[in-house]
Amino acid sequence: MARISIPTTARLPSSLRVDPNNSAVTKILSRLTRSSLISVALDWLDEANISLAVPYLRDDDEDEDNEDVDDFYPAARSPRALIENYLSLQERKGSKREVLDRIVEGDWRHGLTLYQLAMADLQYLYDHPTSQKWSAYRIMPLQAPHDPDGEELPEVDRLSLTVPRFHPSTFLKTLQSHVLPDVKAHYNFDAHRSLPLLILRIFILDSPYNTNHALQSGSTTNFDSSRTVYIAFPDASPYIFISKPQSTTSTTSVSSTSATSAVSARGPTAAGESKSLNALLVEGIPKSLSRPLCRERFTLQSTDLVTRNLAELVERRGGGRTNCAGGGWSIYADEGRGGSSGERGKKRGRKETPLDLVLPSPPLSELDQDQENLDPGSAAGRKGAPAAAVLLTESERRSERATKRARLVAKARFGETGMVRDGKGVERVDIVIEDPFPKVGGQEVGGEEDEGGEEMAQRDSARSDPKGGKRKSRFDQILENAGENEDDEEDDNNTASAPTWRPHVKLTFHGSHVFAGIRQLVESGVIDGERMPGWMTGEEGVTIGAVRHGRIRGYKGSGV
Amino acid sequence: MESNLDDEIADLQAKVSSLKTQLRVHTSTLITAPSTRQLLTQQQPQQKSSKSTQDTQNRDRDRLTNSADQHQAHAQQCLYRACASLTTFRARDPDPHAVDGGAVLGLRIEVVSRSRFLRPYYVLLNRPYQNQTQGRGRGRESGSRRLRVHRHTIPSCVPLAGLAARYLPGPAAKKAVSGGEKGGDGDRAKDQRRGKEQDLARFARALRRELVRYHHRLGVVADLRKAAELGIEKDAERDAERGEEEEITEGESTLERRRNRLVDITPADAGAKQLTIEWADGRTGRLVMSDDGDIVKLVVLGDNGRDWAAGRDLLGGATRVEDVIKRLTALA
Q1: CATH number, domain A353-560, options 3.40.50.300, 3.30.460.80, 3.10.20.720, 2.40.50.140
Q2: What angle do CA B267, B271, B276 make, to 5 degrees?
Q3: Is B116 found in the same domain as B96?
Q4: How many A×B Cβ pairs under 8 Å?
Q5: CA distance A391 to A498
Q6: A331 to chain B: nearest residue by CA?
Q7: Domain regions of chain A by residue span
Q8: Percent of chain A with pLDDT over 70
Q9: Within a domain: residue B46?
Q10: Which chain A residue is nearest to residue B102, measuring alpha carbons?
Q11: Which region ranges are annotated with the description Disordered (chain A) (predicted)?
């Protein structure tokens, strides 16, 4: 441990110990359950990690008598003994407090390293996968600057064929050089346990020192949970997911720094500070990915997908085939990985090899229904139906047919997506409808039928709603983006000649799995599946979007 | 007891579905056979039979012919797909607000890997620019029938967006004049590009090329791993550990070889153009290959900085990754 603390630009070392009485330590550790606490402790004692998580051990040559009799948690002699200790704790039942005290007051009484804290925090993330709100950004290549002064803003190079590449240690090195010297951060990489993701945890401290001095309690109001930022890099994919700090709900995006500053002016100063720290960090990310020497510069572009569900993010912005084939289009991307049971997976995953001469049964035909009967969920609901079919009256039979048809339509529109149990749900979708009000006697406003179905629809209440004000700026931005498309401008010219009333309609869908909810409504016949606009199937893969001509105009709503 | 019954039911259901599959296989084999075809198309001799039986016969025959036609069409499609590897089809967008009445043109790109057809990649294109110009009654102009990528299942390591921007540019901007004033060179270049003709054939070719290259690179990585015996490494390691006590007096060369063993080869980027190579003694290397599998660069880092000798050892003057595979196989 260094004796002298001098201001430096280096990052916080992983081996830096934090006083166990620090409120942050208690906070991070006490969030975990007993079992994960024990498993984290065992992870610390693992051979690979123990160098960065050295426990408090007794010296071998030290006298037995020397031992402090008052010590409630006598120090162990070797890590091996400790491991056995924790294994025995794992076997028997007990309170969480017992383990927590043991860690804080016993085995790591001399302090927990930042690395340990990072591991504990990540464990919490795995235990509670929806604890963070992630927004997806696309890494876009930039054109090489034309003028040497670099005064004009670099443009996105749409012709470029480079796929951004990501190298963790280089990335960290460059990111560190972009962080201001009076901010210290601790970085920790971890591969996600179940998803193809690499998670980077960044823990930000407000201090110029990278030694113990930075952690002295009372020096700053540091150790705020909002200062932990997670960045997730999906494997083989030019996207990046950035978590938003929990305490702040408004949208912080790279492109809307002005909006951020406006918000921070309103909020309490502490929140504002931490937000600007985050903004700095987020700005540093594309620069760290860029390699100016190789003439590769990148920028981040928001993809209007914000969710707590990492699985959904990997599905829609990952390295697989499902990125741009959501909803009913998912049948084209289906690789048979969806089926949980072996047989089902085989059947569903139509390989579609041209060497298979068997006529493929069209989707929704007899074979597929056989499959559905095998599904435990659907079979239970319809068990009695065929037997009683004879006794049905005409109207009942009609309704039976209608439900069947609704189910088929739902299958056609949603494909294999939007299942309640697929674990890939978004919890909030915001839609602005920009279509002109239909003429009297014409068709109804798109999306009107769904208001009753889902929770709430806001009409023109944006200005009075304090939360809506912030969101509005985001919407306006999208509208500006959409306006950049020339074809949209043409439309504007077109409609300008005949002034029409365009009510400001905003729809917000809330729920644990929004599109599964809509699917269920379609299946039960509340929503007419055939007339339902495409954006309600979630096939665009956005959670914020503007609808024009019945089609979503989010960021590159369709295709590329 | 109950679970037993459930298992039985599940078994039976599995049997039913497997029998159904068999039935379908046999149907398609029989119905596409030339002799069946001949029988169906043959004019049946008029027989003396009641009218009702004749009706049923006719109906059955119609159904059979219909089914035979379908199978024939499917067989033809399969033939095209197997031979051409780049086929098109028509699809319909279920969205009631879809552009162009929901008409969608699908590109199907077959990829073969390890002598197997993989699931094809799809690109679905539509014509979003068409309706507007027609609706205004200006008639069709050159830009109106332009295609745009609507949906696709291309993995994100293939630069589809760049290819689409190159070969399928959107229609020329209406406000090109006003935009040109304020915009710089970039804007003008963009406008020029946007007005250019679309070339679907070149787009499809370029895209297929990228996809096939990608799969070849993946295949090469798999071959490399096989050549370095990474798949069976687990067993070998266990054997080695077991035999360690007995073989304390093993030769210098064996030790050397063990130290030089490769322990991991993994693609390091999305497009599998860069490989991370790890040696048993902790050295790591990075192999960069070009799109087509030519070796661009190999850097090996050991404990004391760059290890030139190891790099030379691995490559041995090879210029392509396949040569490295051959070398490794020969060494093993």
Answers
A1: 3.10.20.720
A2: 20
A3: yes
A4: 187
A5: 57
A6: B153
A7: 20-110, 133-144+159-317, 353-560
A8: 61
A9: no
A10: A534
A11: 246-270, 325-386, 435-473
